[in-house]
Amino acid sequence: MKPKELLEALQRVIGLSTDSAVARLIGLTSGRVSQWRSGKRDLSARQVANLVKRVASLAGTEQLGNAIRPIVELYPVDCVASKQDARWLILPTDKRKNPRRNKLRKHLEKAKGIYFFYNSEGEVVYVGQTQKRTLWKRMNETFNREAQSHQAYVVRHPSTGSAFVPAWSKLRQPVKRIVYLYDIAAYFSAYEVAEPLIDNLEAMIVRAFCNDLANVKMEKFKFKL
Predict the structure, then answer these.
(1) pLDDT tens across 183-205, in order?
(2) How far is residue 140's CA from residue 216's CA, in Å, rounded to a whole number?
(3) Using CA atoms, how far apart are residues 26 and 47, in angstroms rounded to an integer?
């Protein structure tokens, strides 16, 4: 293969406009690329193979740089009832009242990856992932899910009637009950993650912070041998 043909093909396919850009891509000096362009000797199969390997390696590195992209971090939860009060949503969905939140929702509706819920002190209480459903759908499902492992002591107070009875005359015992995320979640973060990384990234986070999270399942690493 003629060096000039290869250089022109690289410029055309990858979208490079100068020999200097080509030189940086394939790991040669600009002077060496100029020699290739003016030379008449064919490139050997080994030389072409090494160039392909070099370009593929750099392309993979560039892709890894975009493998994890934050959509929003520590964003305040402002839950509202869904239509027909079927469940809670983590954000209002009225397009007219808050267009910024509507745009955030659109990003969550397109992306898949990893998400976090935090309590009012900014401590992570739950981490999850989604590969089949969008972040918006998965996060709202999790927000409403009953987690048997997440329990806390509370005091049940009357919600009806106008009279108030002080605790010294009628002591109400603290009892442990299941706590939903919508009871305690004050913030959330969402990250768009390349699909091959989602499983192992979630597993790493859950395993590293297993004693701090309400997650029931201990995720396992997945390897392709």
Answers:
(1) 889 999 999 998 888 999 999 99
(2) 18
(3) 11
Q: Strands 68-76 and 187-193: what pairing?
A: antiparallel
Strands (E), the chain: 68-76, 80-81, 88-89, 113-118, 124-130, 151-154, 175-178, 187-193
Query: Can you tell me the distance from the alpha carbon of 162 to that of 27, in angstroms, rounded to the nearest whole number?
Result: 80
Q: Measured between alpha carbons, how far is 76 from 91 in angstroms, rounded to an integer?
A: 9
**Do you know the residue count of the chain?**
225
Do the Cβ atoms of 219 and 202 come closer than 8 Å?
yes
18 closest CA partner among 35, 27, 30? 30
Identity at 33, one-letter amino acid code: V
Amino acid identity, position 117: F
Q: Which helix (H) or strand (E) holds 196?
A: helix 195-208
Strand residue runs (E) in 131-208: 151-154, 175-178, 187-193
Render the burial of 98-117: b for 16+ CB within 10 Å, e for the rest: eeebeebbeebeebbbbbbb
Q: How far is it, in rounded angstroms, from Cα 150 to Cα 125?
A: 9
DSSP reduced 3-state for 117: strand
> Following DSSP, what letter does each residue of 2-42 receive, concatenated?
-HHHHHHHHHHHHT--SHHHHHHHHT--HHHHHHHHH--SP
* pLDDT tens profile 91-102: 987 767 788 888
